[in-house]
């Protein structure tokens, strides 16, 4: 006798100041069979209390008009052990790399700009729920520019290059596209493989390189010379 396996449903808490935006996000997310919005809240103490009450897998934080409060909310959510392994994804139209750095330093697992397609938001939620990290392509480029200027990065660069040298030709192709900021779906289309196959390649590369998340794979791609800054800028200009 066979039993149907129920797929894991990602429990999502929406935090943001605008009820209309939260409602729009709820409608979009609940159309996905693997997502459930289990609560909404404004930013601040109410958001922290809501997270404790409903125990989400992912907090989608709309931090447009309250970026400072939003980053403080990220810190409270990620530093308080009562929240467990909740992943916080910051969703904003706020400009400025300083917001990206502050959000990541506070513990956010993703920083996605609102000009990205809806499918990227859905993929980002699935990725952070699975333990990954997500940045918009332009943000990825800025992150690499910052990290590659630091001495600790230079000390680690040789080890990263040696690790990449051990990858197969196909894996290096995939890693190059990750370094350019492409999503799994975009990698699949570029290489004429399925999105699932692309995802499998990325997971295998992460394991081989002992990379915590997608951001570290981007750094590996730059370290090994698979991606250069001019190429990253050209790619960012296309998306």
The CATH C-level name of the largest domain is Alpha Beta
Write down how many β-strands occur, each being a DSSP E stretch of 2 or more residues.
Answer: 6
Q: How many DSSP H or I helices?
A: 12
Low-confidence stretches are: 1-6
Write down the domain tally: 2
Question: Can you tell me about this structure?
Answer:
This protein has 239 residues and is of the alpha/beta class. The protein folds into two domains: 10-135, Response regulator (Rossmann fold); 143-238, Rossmann fold, CATH 3.40.50.2300. The protein has helices at residues 19-29, 45-54, 67-79, 97-106, 118-129, 137-147, 151-165, 169-179, 184-191, 195-209, 214-223, 229-238, and strands spanning 10-15, 35-41, 58-62, 87-92, 110-113, 134-135. The chain is globular and about 50 Å long.
Helix-strand blueprint:
Layout lengths: L9 E6 L3 H11 L5 E7 L3 H10 L3 E5 L4 H13 L7 E6 L4 H10 L3 E4 L4 H12 L4 E2 L1 H11 L3 H15 L3 H11 L4 H8 L3 H15 L4 H10 L5 H10 L1
Parallel strand pairs: 1-2, 1-3, 3-4, 4-5, 5-6
Helix pairs in contact: 3-4, 6-11, 6-12, 8-10, 8-11, 9-10
Any key phrases for this structure?
239 residues, alpha/beta, Rossmann fold, 2 domains, 12 helices, disordered N terminus
């Amino acid at each position: 006798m066979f039993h149907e396996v129920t797929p894991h449903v990602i429990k999502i808490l929406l935090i943001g100041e605008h009820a209309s935006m939260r409602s729009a996000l709820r409608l979009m997310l609940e159309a996905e069979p693997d997502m459930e919005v289990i609560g909404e809240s404004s930013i601040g103490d109410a958001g922290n209390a809501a997270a404790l009450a409903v125990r989400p897998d992912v907090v989608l934080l709309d931090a447009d008009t309250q970026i400072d409060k939003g980053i403080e909310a990220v810190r409270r959510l990620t530093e308080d052990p009562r929240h467990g392994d909740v992943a916080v994804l910051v969703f904003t139209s706020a400009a400025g790399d300083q917001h990206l750095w502050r959000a990541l330093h506070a513990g956010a697992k993703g920083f996605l700009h609102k000009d990205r397609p809806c499918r990227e938001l859905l993929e980002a939620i699935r990725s952070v729920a699975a333990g990954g990290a997500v940045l918009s392509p332009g943000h990825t480029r800025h992150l690499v520019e910052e990290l590659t200027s630091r001495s600790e990065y230079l000390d680690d660069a040789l080890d990263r290059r040696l690790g990449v040298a051990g990858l197969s030709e196909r894996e290096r192709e995939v890693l190059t596209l990750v370094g350019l900021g492409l999503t799994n779906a975009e990698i699949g289309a570029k290489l004429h493989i399925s999105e699932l196959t692309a995802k499998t390649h990325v997971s295998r590369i992460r394991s081989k390189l002992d990379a915590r998340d997608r951001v570290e794979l981007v750094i590996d791609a730059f370290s090994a010379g698979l991606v250069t800054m001019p190429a990253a800028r050209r790619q960012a200009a296309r998306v």
